[in-house]
Amino acid sequence: MRHRPRQTQPAEHPVPAASDTSPSGQVLALDIRGVSKHFRHKGKNTLALDNVDLHVQPGEFICLLGPSGCGKSTLLNIVAGFMKADSGTILSQGTPVTKPGADRCVLFQQPTLYSWMTTKQNVMFGPKMTGMDKTAASERAAELLDIVGLGAFQNHYPHQLSGGMRHRVAYARALINKPNILLLDEPFAALDAITRVSMQNFLLELWQQERTTILFVTHDVEEACLLADRVCVMSARPGRVHAISTVDIPRPRTQATVESQVFIENRRALRTTLEETLGQQEAVVQ
Amino acid sequence: MSGTLSNPPTAILDPRLATGDAKPSLGGRLSELMRRRYLSVVSIVGALVIWELIAVLIVRDPVFLPTPIATVGALIHYWDRPYPSQGKPLWYDTYISLIRILVGFAIGTIIGIIIGGLMAAVRPIRSIIDPFIELTRPLPPLAFIPLLLVWFGLGETPKIVLITIGVIPIVTVSTAAAITDVPAELLHAARCLGASEFQTAVYVQIRAALPQIITGMRLAMGISWTSIVAAEFVAATAGLGYVILQAGQFLRTDLIFAGVLIIAVLGITLDALLRLLKSRIDPAGRSAQ
Ligand SMILES: Nc1ncnc2c1ncn2[C@@H]1O[C@H](COP(=O)(O)OP(=O)(O)OP(=O)(O)O)[C@@H](O)[C@H]1O
Ligand SMILES: [Mg+2]
């Protein structure tokens, strides 16, 4: 169980900048340093990310929260290696990021399973590509499918599974590579309300069990509050880190947590922080 | 590590999970199939009966309209006897046409897949080839028959080339479209799972495009039959088109129908083989077929 003193630190004074280790001396799971990115579209320049810094501890669950267009997806795509930053560096466990890799696994809004492969073959895709020992991979795949509750569906094809089940296969497929960090861009946004809640529970339990570092993009305050250790609140135009809030709610968390007093307090604080960014934005517009 | 998450979330929500079986029951599928097949069989038999009745009761002229029974009779009779007397038996004409189709179709498909793949992979190549495809696509391949005869003479070459030039644009366009239509997220997902760019192209992009490429091949197969029959009308001494033309000149309508029947059976068979191939590699499309 984690318990941190609640604090909201302004982003202008982040952890000592020129070090890729956490205070405890561990190598950071993800170290984003001074990342900027602009887009030119029809002759108009958009500064999507302006000098963004973010330091993610190993095993941490961190949410990116911010209004639409503040550059959350852009940042995630740069971390994943799908996109190049204009400036700044990104270190994944101390190694500079230049291209996509199995150390940073993205989970999309769609489960993106391969329709011609069975559940088990989908999970074993990564090990097959990286040339991992086949029997070991097969054992681990079966184990992971058990963990996500799909042990009985190893030989089913994706179209024979429900939407929620497909998503859970996608998590097993990601975890088999032992990624250093999971990158999730509004993974539950396309789901119906019931599946969304069950996937949130699923992710909480999975994280509790596997302790994979997770960077989770959302624009839902409640979701951020329920899932995260820390929330990186971003402001738009240009996309900046406005504040990094620590969510001071004991774990393990469940849907019942949502009703607790401490949750309500945290959510109120987080909402206030988010509203500050909107206020800024309006001030810029006026 | 090894424990199962206590509450597999969707289990309660998905009725298929109750039995642990995501497929509809075998009995249900069979009876569904029987019902559909039953109607098809009834409609075919009905059409044959109507044809027989019209031929016997209304037309009453076997030269103008032979009965279905006479057609099958002519087919069986000439299957291993030459027609016309200086020609070849039907099985030989069938064999000749089939070889021409298969060779021309295979060459055209291979070339089409290569060009289509290059178009999808390299932007400039696409820009270079696109206008030619757009230009040749509306042209009926049959318009090239006289030219091909001038260039290649009367042998097998002009027939095979004709089929090939009918197949290439169709397969090229469907291959290029199939490969570029693969959602980018499928490719991104592969890179995140440790696949190299090359592995992603081969194991995900091309693999995901295969069902749509085969759909293009089915279209091209239809065109191939048109091409071969037309070519055999114009310049051939064997083949189903040649037999049909000869039979027409001798007013043997029963043999014309027999030739058409063989083409229909072969066409349906080859298409069924392609459909089978598609359903083997595309499990998601199986139920839709
Ligand atoms: N390919 C692109 N070309 C031009 N502009 C882009 C491109 N991608 C993003 N942008 C711009 O960059 C800014 C940040 O976009 P991004 O998609 O990262 O926002 P977001 O925070 O993910 O928003 P949302 O919550 O709506 O998903 C936006 O102003 C957007 O218009
Ligand atoms: Mg986004």
From TrEMBL, chain B:
Residues annotated as domain ABC transmembrane type-1: 90-274
Membrane topology of this protein: Multi-pass membrane protein
Places the protein is found: Cell membrane
Coiled-coil region list: none
Spans through the membrane: 38-59, 98-122, 134-154, 160-179, 219-244, 256-277
Keyword Membrane (UniProt): yes
Source taxon at top rank: Bacteria
Pfam families in the cross-refs: BPD_transp_1
Keywords, in A-Z order: Cell membrane, Membrane, Transmembrane, Transmembrane helix, Transport
GO BP terms in the entry: alkanesulfonate transmembrane transport
The keyword Transport is assigned to this record: yes
InterPro entries (alphabetical): MetI-like, MetI-like_sf
A single Gene Ontology CC term: plasma membrane
UniProt similarity note: Belongs to the binding-protein-dependent transport system permease family.
Name of the molecule in the record: ABC transporter permease
